Automatic annotation (TrEMBL):
It holds the Pfam family PGM_PMM_III. Residues 1-23 are annotated as: Disordered. This is phosphoglucomutase (alpha-D-glucose-1,6-bisphosphate-dependent). Keywords: Cytoplasm, Isomerase, Magnesium, Metal-binding, Phosphoprotein. GO terms for cellular component: cytosol. Its EC number is 5.4.2.2. CDD domains: PGM1. NCBIfam families: PRK07564.1-1. GO terms for biological process: carbohydrate metabolic process. It catalyses: alpha-D-glucose 1-phosphate = alpha-D-glucose 6-phosphate. The keyword Isomerase applies. Its cofactor is Mg(2+). Belongs to the phosphohexose mutase family.
Length: 554
């Protein structure tokens, strides 16, 4: 293949290219502005710790609108910056967990992931770009801050005059010293799952329980091809066990966020068709939701139960659980399992990137977040498909002692042993940023007034109130202002924070948690209503924002 020439293209900085909780997420129309995407990708390449020259990068995304154009831009910029090799998923497709796995397996320098996760796609919706490090995990703040600094001063980018590259064919092409390898996006991930789980056990479970109905909703995100291979081809489930399996640029005009609100098609079918095990994953395949007829596995409980049933998963059985972790707003259900098993548990800020250091240091095998994210140290991203196979493994394992076991039996047995951490999150999306700031200001005044500690509000006595700050135990880096917490003496909590993943206005997240040792069969919303009322009173959220109801309750 002929080589290419590199042009230095003049550009001007754009405001607002600051990566949020997980990369830069904006409306597609913003990314389509002249040089907008090029600026951010150039800044990302320039911020690679040892520089872009000679690097090997994994590139891929969730198939959303603008992916194809973005990949071609990345190819030209990577070649222009002397990157040595790009490993790209066929047609630009890679789930976020598969990309993390590939970065690790290929010992790549890092990866550029093209996704806005669970946010809707299409010309009027969202796109996103994020950088992952050589450990396969999202870049830490030191790197994302550097990217941002570069975007504020950028005056040119280095671009190769390569034509559009055909990404539909698997294989390697060379362009001078620059190599592009197009790979099957699913193969390596399937190998990894077969190393982690006991597929024979799962197959024999499905043979013993032919009546056990599974339904997996890919929500037209990236996981369709992964699920077809794993559930249908490998585990032998009927094709009717998967739905919305074709990745679409606009996710079929849906909102690919696996929760009870947005995955309503799945929720309806599970109830109507008496499905034993329903599951969904998001646009880029890192989030998951697990339900059954009349059963919902709260994500905070999900990670706690996986920890409790670690023996059901050969990967954990072999090496043991080295440590557990959760994000600060996630309920303390996992802490109770950790205590019983005598394992350390870490509380980190929201953002998967915070788990990576703990995992790299061998201090954490399993972690989870209330935001439908669960994962382990097999990669450095949360992993939706992994979580779903982990739950199938729990059911198969529990069925050895209770052949007819269902999700509610497993949950109730757990609550009977550990008590129940009732948990719910209220999201107020696209709130006017100034109104959101007023809510936060009021709460900040509350936590700064130390006389509030010890005050009682009904049955709740304030034990502590602060803005969560985290010192990374491995590298000592400090992350401040990670969420306002009001903690009560019975362990109940009210937490407020602003989302770092929205693309328009501000999203206020209100999280509440209440622990009950014995009373574990109440409906969650009933159980937590008094705390919600108190949270709204303390924050004056309705008064400041005019929002009488949250956009989404999970
Ligand atoms: C990302 C992060 C998660 C975080 C979630 C929500 O997930 O990786 O750690 O919990 O965003 O963050 P926020 O509350 O700031 O909106 P994803 O699935 O969107 O990549």
């Amino acid at each position: 293949m002929p080589s290419f020439t590199v042009k230095e293209v003049p550009t001007k900085p754009y405001d607002g290219q600051k990566p949020g909780t997980s990369g830069l997420r904006k409306r597609v129309k913003i990314f389509q502005q002249d040089n907008y995407t090029e600026n951010f990708v150039q800044a990302t390449l320039s911020a690679i710790p040892d520089g872009p020259a000679g690097a090997t990068l994994v590139v891929g995304g969730d198939g959303r609108f603008f992916l194809k154009e973005a990949v071609q831009k990345i190819i030209r910029l990577a070649a222009g910056n002397k990157v040595s090799k790009l490993v790209i998923g066929q047609n630009g497709i890679l789930s976020t967990p598969a990309a993390s796995n590939l970065i690790r397996k290929r010992k790549a320098t890092g990866g550029i992931l093209l996704t806005a996760s669970h946010n809707p796609g299409g010309p009027d919706n969202d796109f996103g770009i994020k950088y992952n490090m050589s450990n396969g995990g999202p870049a830490p703040e030191s790197v994302t801050d550097k990217i941002y600094q570069i975007t504020t001063k950028i005056s040119s980018y280095q671009q190769a005059d390569l034509p559009d590259i055909d990404l539909s064919k698997i294989g390697t092409t060379k362009h001078g010293d620059f190599t592009i390898e197009v790979i099957d996006p699913v193969d390596d991930y399937v190998i990894l799952m077969k190393e982690i789980f006991d597929f024979d056990l799962l197959r024999s479970f499905f043979k013993k329980r032919p009546d056990f109905k599974v339904l997996f909703d890919s929500m037209h995100g990236v996981t369709g091809p992964y699920n077809e291979r794993l559930l249908v081809t490998e585990l032998g489930l009927p094709k009717s066990s998967v739905m919305n399996s074709i990745p679409l640029p606009d996710f079929g005009d849906g909102h690919p966020d696996p929760n009870l609100t947005y995955a309503h098609d799945l929720v309806d079918r599970v109830e109507k068709e008496n499905i034993d095990f329903g599951a969904a994953s998001d646009g880029d395949g890192d989030r998951n939701m697990i339900i059954g007829k009349g059963a919902f596995v709260n994500p905070s409980d999900s990670v706690a139960l996986i920890a409790a049933y670690a023996d059901a998963i050969p990967y954990f059985k072999k090496s043991g659980l080295k440590g557990l972790a959760r994000s600060m707003p996630t309920s303390g259900a996992i802490d109770r399992v950790a205590k019983k098993k005598g394992i350390q548990v870490f509380e980190v800020p929201t953002g998967w990137k915070f788990f990576g250091n703990l995992m790299d240091a061998g201090k954490c095998s399993l972690c989870g977040e209330e935001s439908f994210g669960t994962g382990s140290d097999h990669i450095r991203e949360k992993d939706g498909v992994w979580a779903i196979i982990a739950w199938l493994s729990i059911v198969a394992y529990a069925s050895e002692t209770n052949p007819k076991v269902g999700l509610n039996d497993i949950l109730n047995k757990h609550y009977a042993e550990y008590g129940r951490n009732y948990f719910s999150r209220y999201d107020y999306e696209e709130v006017d940023s100034e109104h959101a700031a007023k809510v936060i200001d009021r709460l900040t005044a509350f936590i700064n007034d130390k006389s509030n500690v010890g005050k009682s509000f009904g049955r709740y006595e304030v034990a502590a109130a602060d803005n969560f700050e985290y010192t990374d135990p491995i590298d000592g880096s400090v992350s401040k202002n990670q969420g306002i917490r009001i903690i009560f003496s019975d362990g109940s909590r009210i937490i407020f924070r602003l989302s770092g993943t929205g693309s328009q206005g501000a999203t206020i997240r209100l999280y509440v948690e209440k622990y009950e040792q014995k009373n574990y069969t109440v409906d969650t919303q009933t159980a937590i209503q008094d705390l919600i009322k108190l949270a709204l009173e303390l924050s004056q959220l309705v008064e400041f924002t005019g929002r009488k109801k949250p956009t989404v309750i999970t």
